[in-house]
Structure formats: structure tokens, C-alpha cells
Amino acid sequence: MSSTQFWVAVFVPQIIERISPHFKRLFALKEFDSQTQQRVSSKEYPAFYALLYLLWGISLISFGCVLLLFIIIYMTQLVPQEKYGLIIWFGLIMFLGSFMIPGALLDFLFWSISPENFRDYVKFRLIKSGWGYEMRDQIMTLFKIGLIYLLLTSPLVIYLLYLLFR
Fold first, then answer.
1. What pLDDT shows up at residue 111?
2. How many CB atoms are located within 10 Å of the residue 159 CB?
3. SS3 readout for the chain
4. How far apart are alpha carbons 151 and 97 in whole angstroms?
5. How many domains does the chain have?
6. Structural domain includes residue 17
7. Residue ranges of the chain with per-residue pLDDT less than 70
8. Residues 114/122, Cβ–Cβ less than 8 Å
9. Looking at the domain assignment, is residue 156 inside a domain?
10. Which regions span the lipid bilayer (predicted)?
11. Do 20 and 130 contact (CB within 8 A), yes or no?
12. Does residue 113 fall inside a structural domain?
């Protein structure tokens, strides 16, 4: 295990524990009721659901990585070599933003096409991880955070684009 993996494993669960109540109040997230919690925790799920859940998470992460690589590879053909640093900053800003709005849309798509039993498994995993809020509320929250991020970073993105293409 690398040092980075160790520190991520140590701090991420604690960060999620601490920010969860704040997000709950700020975005009016509804927790799963006790009946749903009991129902999803008492069910037996097929082993391949863990793989499907992992693929769901990987698809959300890979969307941002593909966007970052696309920006870095194709924008270097449009601008001179001395501006690679600006391209990387632009790519990182868009990389972080792609986890929000497109991530919310992917979540909505995956949630919509999932069968009820797999939805219960996702609820079970969310409850187990300490993020036991209704998926619809989580998707809307991610979308709202994405809009806020987009509004806050748009002046910086416009400035970086100006510097890149002047």
C-alpha cells in the first residue's frame, strides 16, 4: 500500500462523516427511513452486484479522466507549446467540474435503468458508507453543487481561455 492510499483511507471516511450533517442541512437531504434501512440490510444480493456498483463508480471517475486527457491532448494542438501549463490548469478545472453536472446526469441515467433489486443494493451500500440519503436528493445536490462550481469557476475559465487563445 502506498503512502497516498494510506492517507486517503485514513482521512476520507472521517471527512465524509463530518461533512454529511452539513450537506444534509444545507441541501435538505432526506435520509432513508428505518423501514427501508431494515429492508435493504436484511436482503441477500448476488455477488456480481458489487462489480456493477464498482463499475458505476469507475464510470463516474473515468468520465472526468477522459475529459482531462481529451483537453490535454487536443488543446495542445491548438495553442503554442509555452502555454501547456495553462492547458493543464484549464483541464483540471474542467476535470473537477465534470464530476458534478455530468456525474449527476450519469447517476440519474444509471439509477433510472437499474432494476429495483440493484437499487436496493445501492441503498445498502450508501447506508453502509454513512451516506444514507435518498438517491434522487443526492443527484439533485450533485447537480446544484455543479451549477455553483460552474458559476464560481466560469470567470477563471474565461480568463484561462483568453490567455490561451490571444
1. 93
2. 12
3. CCHHHHHHHHHHHHHHHHHHHHHHHHHCCCECCHHHHHHHHHCCCCCHHHHHHHHHHHHHHHHHHHHHHHHHHHHCCCCCHHHHHHHHHHHHHHHHHCCCHHHHHHHHHHHHHCCHHHHHHHHHHHHHHCCCECHHHHHHHHHHHHHHHHHHHHHHHHHHHHHHHC
4. 11
5. 1
6. no
7. 1-13, 16-17
8. yes
9. yes
10. 47-74, 86-113, 145-165
11. yes
12. yes
Q: At 142, list the grid cell.
A: 450533485
Give the number of residues written for the chain: 166
Q: How far is CA 34 from the centre of its chain?
A: 26
Report the amino acid identity of residue 58.
I
Q: Range of 114's domain?
A: 33-165
Looking at residue 108, what is its pLDDT? 93
Residue at 6 is within a domain: no
pTM of the model: 0.77
107 CB-near residues (< 8 Å, 6+ apart): 60, 135, 138, 139, 142
The three cell numbers of residue 99 are 464530476
Rounded Cα distance between 25 and 137, Å, is 12
The count of other CB atoms within 10 Å of the CB of residue 131 is 17
